[in-house]
Fold this protein.
Amino acid sequence: MQNNSTTTLRGFVALCVFSATAVTLGQSTAQEAQLLPRSKRVLTQKEQQALTPQKILDLLKTGNQRFVEGTLTRRNHSRQIRAAASGQFPKAVILSCLDARIPVEDVFDCGIGDLFVARVAGNFANTDILGSIEFGCKVAGAKMVLILGHGSCGAVNATIDGAELGNITSMLANIRPAVDSVRYDGERTSSNAEFADKVTEANVRLTMNYIRKNSPVLRDLEDSGRIKLVGAIYEMKSGKVSFLKPVAKPEK
Ligand SMILES: [Zn+2]
């Protein structure tokens, strides 16, 4: 993305935010927000810039630990809404499945303005998702892209079983490469949890590969260490997120 277009996008965001702020706040609460504890305010640009991709990964891990233990941070969302009206400086982009049982912000003990969350059944990427992630990182400054798959995924299971219905058929075609990529001699059905889990992980890894292959913007950010691209699996029964070990990057 060219610098001038990036500036234009930033300007567009700023204009929208300014308009919203003028209507919503009257007297800005930005200064007040700075004085509030974390539970009542939102990430500032200065704080976003000070974070490293590794630090963000660590924060997501410790946040998930609190989610699993039932010790989520108590947040004042009313105050956070007003504080966030003056701008957004999220630390990460999460690409999650549509599944209603995965409250993404809560899963990482994050509040308003902390995360960009893109959701589509089966957490795959396409051009629209790529554009959204590029906006989140290149324009809005997020430094982490997390592809979050999960166990017992209906989209993955439906793909394995060859389900067909309306537009769901073409949507599941995006997950089919993951099914085909898994070498497995046992029963290749969704009722075989071992096979389904392998497909789920393969789907996350293929999505990461897709991003690297099809987004020069994000690839450049990753290669230069300005963002981290990671995969993870959410475990339904515990709420625990297991981060995948990196593998060698594909040929460019
Ligand atoms: Zn799912």
User: Anything to note?
Assistant: The radius of gyration is 19 Å.
